[in-house]
């Protein structure tokens, strides 16, 4: 494998004493050898320094001069390396079995987390580092089984192998009696856990096994009443209720997570959990029949998706309870009034149940975050405490005006009242928040002046708001998401929005906006824009040839591929320390369908200009928008030829040019668009052969119907013409040399362009697109 080292910063730190021993030359030579296993960039100062050492005629004399590198610790008494800190060093490749790393016999601390050893096995050589006390190999992409040699590390107290791709049975670590912390989470371990797991490591206080495929032990599991285990996370595995008995005998547990056991739908009886010190308990995703714990210290209780039908009354006396999550259950009726009187309760999630009535939240409640969304609450909105910071109540039946008492919550930062029946106007005092979602109500009047510098998301779509966009929005310097779709706003195109440097999404869809979207002397250029939906308005005029050239940097430059999918909103509120709280959503027209994106991928790039009165040619500069996933220019009056520069949009998945007045041939170049899963060019004036790419050939006939003289698949009309009676060659024969020449050019262009790593949904999805499933785009975006 070809290795690549972006940044590999090794540093030698010599602790100063009265007479410290300098680094041993043999240890420096090992560092040099390890460095040479991974080719470095010249800009890396550590490699430059080591290169100086390497070219020194006498390494021993050089080391006496002293070194000053971060990341390596030498023993003051012996000069041997005792600590290596290489976390996040961007090392790429494979650690070989004979690596110099395994010759540091005095090494006690090794931090090698967050590097790039993807698809590389975990070397058995780690078992030769018998002086190790601390080993962190997390987030490296290691595959395969953990070698049995790991059991040689008898001095080990800390082990972290989390967030790799390790497989096989539970590692041979239960005989390492000095271990105090083990993290094996987010791997693919399977089989049973050792029956003596809780008894052979008397110093163990932290154990994290979540997100694996581990099962109950074959024999009865034992536990010790003297166990020091405090933190136990066994979530997202295959454990059954058998695991409860040994766990219940762990007297010092403060953190217990047994959520989402992917076994059959059995019901777990937690009738009594004798944990007197328990502070955090998560049983989500399990069917719970009964629950009680005697702990007076319980502060986090998470019971989401537990099939609960009755509110857990034992928490009535839980005076230390801070966080309660009973979302996604079958709870109904009114919320018990005693809940609002719990003195320490700050976060309550009651969403996705069948609670009804009008909840009465006392003003002296200590709540700071409350989620009532997706229930059947009705009537007037409750009075909320002044301490509230997050208020979510979407998808209910609340009615009447939005109460002015919300304005008294001076710390309010997120207000989501979407999908209710609120009426009246929007008060200006409500806009001094970071997130304001009022979509799908019956709100009327004009938008108030909004100049909040903390406003990030503004969504008032699907109401009856009229007037113009308030120019004060230009002062909302943190605004990232603006959605006013499906209202009655009558205004010209808001060129002034390009002053908002953080604006990523503009949705003006289905209003009464009018006039041109270009103007002489005005260069429309956004800093962060990646979604622009101005469809179903009355915009008109033509677009200048360079209109798209500088429209937005994220649209022009393809973003780098990220290891994990990310969504807009990740940067904002969090429900709990490990769970995202809030995502903006939009309605999007793609593949001829209207759909709702409940979560918007960071790499979702959209230009949606359909349903207006644009004319003239489609600018060739459209080819600059290399990040585009969706392009919809349908239902306009565009004329002229389809620009061949569309072939540069190599990430494009949906293209709709239907119902215009486009003429000429369809550019053969677009057949290189391997991710193009939906194309519609119907009802134009197009002629000639349809490009015969894999994706295009899989489209329905309706995608090309209503043109003048198109031929080739998927249409039934063949492009073959018989020789005429005058002996003239057929149209197909006339163009064959030209087509062959064009194919050669296209092959060269395809090689030059490449398909690039980093298509939004990956190669596997691209292959799935070849079968053409109209609803696939919708499902993908809802992942």
TrEMBL record:
Location(s) in or outside the cell: Cell membrane
Spans through the membrane: none
Signal peptide: 1-18
UniProt keywords, alphabetically: Cell membrane, Glycoprotein, Leucine-rich repeat, Membrane, Receptor, Repeat, Signal, Transmembrane, Transmembrane helix
Membrane topology qualifier: Single-pass type I membrane protein
SUPFAM superfamilies recorded: L domain-like (SSF52058)
GO cellular component terms, A-Z: plasma membrane
A Pfam family recorded for this sequence: LRR_4
Entry's family note: Belongs to the RLP family.
Protein name: Leucine-rich repeat-containing N-terminal plant-type domain-containing protein
């Amino acid at each position: 494998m070809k290795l690549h080292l972006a940044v590999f910063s090794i540093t030698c730190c010599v602790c100063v004493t009265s007479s410290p021993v300098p680094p041993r030359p043999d240890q420096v030579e090992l560092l040099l050898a390890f460095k040479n296993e991974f080719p470095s960039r010249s800009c890396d100062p550590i490699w430059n320094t080591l290169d100086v050492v390497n070219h020194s005629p006498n390494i021993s004399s050089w080391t006496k001069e002293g070194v000053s590198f971060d990341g390596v610790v030498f023993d003051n008494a012996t000069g041997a390396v005792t600590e290596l800190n290489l976390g996040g060093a961007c090392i790429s490749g494979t650690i070989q079995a004979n690596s110099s790393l395994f010759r540091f016999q005095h090494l006690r601390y090794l931090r090698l987390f967050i590097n790039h050893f993807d698809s590389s096995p975990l070397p058995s050589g780690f078992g030769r580092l018998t002086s190790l006390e601390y080993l962190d190999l997390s987030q490296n992409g290691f595959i395969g089984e953990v070698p049995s040699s790991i059991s040689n590390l008898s001095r080990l107290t800390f082990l972290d192998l989390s967030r790799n791709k390790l497989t096989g049975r539970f590692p041979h670590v239960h005989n390492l009696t000095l271990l105090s912390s083990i993290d094996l989470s987010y791997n693919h371990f399977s089989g049973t856990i050792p029956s003596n797991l809780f008894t052979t490591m008397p110093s163990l206080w932290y154990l994290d096994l979540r997100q694996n495929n581990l099962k109950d032990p074959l024999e009865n599991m034992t536990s010790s009443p003297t166990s020091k285990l405090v933190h136990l996370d066994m979530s997202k595995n295959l454990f059954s209720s058998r695991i409860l008995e040994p766990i219940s005998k762990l007297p010092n547990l403060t953190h217990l997570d047994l959520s989402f056991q992917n076994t059959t739908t059995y019901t777990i009886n937690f009738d009594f959990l004798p944990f007197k010190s328990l502070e955090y308990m998560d049983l989500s995703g399990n069917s719970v029949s009964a629950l009680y714990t005697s702990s007076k210290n319980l502060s986090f209780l998470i019971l989401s998706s537990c099939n609960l039908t009755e509110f857990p009354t034992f928490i009535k006396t839980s005076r230390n309870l801070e966080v309660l999550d009973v979302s996604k259950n079958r709870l109904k009726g009114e919320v018990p009034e005693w809940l609002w009187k719990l003195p320490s309760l700050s976060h309550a999630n009651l969403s996705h149940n069948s609670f009804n009535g009008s909840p009465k939240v006392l003003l002296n409640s200590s709540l700071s975050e409350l989620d009532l969304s997706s229930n059947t609450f009705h009537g007037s909105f409750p009075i909320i405490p002044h301490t509230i910071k997050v208020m979510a109540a979407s998808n209910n039946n609340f009615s009447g005006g939005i109460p002015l008492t919300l304005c008294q919550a001076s710390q309010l930062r997120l207000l989501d009242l979407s999908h209710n029946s609120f009426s009246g106007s929007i008060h200006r005092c409500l806009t001094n928040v970071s997130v304001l979602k009022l979509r799908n109500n019956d709100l009327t009047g004009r938008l108030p002046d909004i100049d909040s510098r903390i406003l990030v998301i503004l969504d008032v779509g699907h109401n009856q708001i009229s007037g113009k966009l308030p120019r004060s929005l230009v002062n909302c310097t943190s605004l990232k998401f603006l959605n006013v779709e499906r209202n009655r706003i009558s205004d010209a195109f808001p060129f002034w929005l390009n002053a908002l440097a953080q604006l990523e999404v503009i949705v003006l869809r289905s209003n009464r906006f009018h006039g041109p979207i270009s103007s002489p002397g005005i260069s429309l250029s956004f800093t962060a824009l990646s979604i622009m939906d101005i469809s179903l308005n009355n915009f008109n005029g033509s677009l200048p040839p360079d209109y798209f050239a500088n429209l937005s940097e994220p649209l022009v430059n393809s973003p780098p591929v990220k290891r994990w999918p990310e969504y807009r909103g990740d940067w904002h509120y969090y429900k709990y320390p490990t769970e995202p709280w809030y995502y903006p959503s939009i309605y999007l027209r793609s593949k001829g369908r209207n759909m709702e994106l409940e979560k918007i991928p960071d790499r979702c790039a959209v230009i949606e200009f359909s349903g207006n009165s644009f004319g003239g040619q489609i600018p060739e500069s459209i080819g600059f928008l290399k990040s585009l996933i969706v392009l919809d220019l349908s239902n306009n009056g565009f004329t002229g030829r389809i620009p061949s520069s569309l072939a540069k949009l190599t990430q494009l998945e949906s293209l709709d040019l239907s119902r215009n007045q486009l003429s000429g041939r369809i550019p053969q170049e677009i057949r290189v668009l391997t991710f193009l899963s939906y194309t519609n060019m119907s009802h134009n004036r197009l002629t000639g052969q349809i490009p015969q790419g894999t994706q295009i050939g899989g489209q329905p006939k309706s995608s090309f119907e209503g043109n003048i003289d198109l031929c080739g698949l998927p249409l039934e009309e063949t492009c073959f013409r018989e020789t005429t009676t005058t002996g003239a060659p057929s149209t197909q024969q006339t163009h064959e040399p030209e087509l062959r020449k064009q194919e050669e050019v296209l092959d060269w262009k395809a090689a030059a362009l490449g398909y690039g790593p980093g298509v939004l949904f990956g190669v596997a999805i691209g292959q799935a697109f070849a079968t053409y499933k109209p609803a696939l785009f919708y499902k993908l975006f809802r992942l």
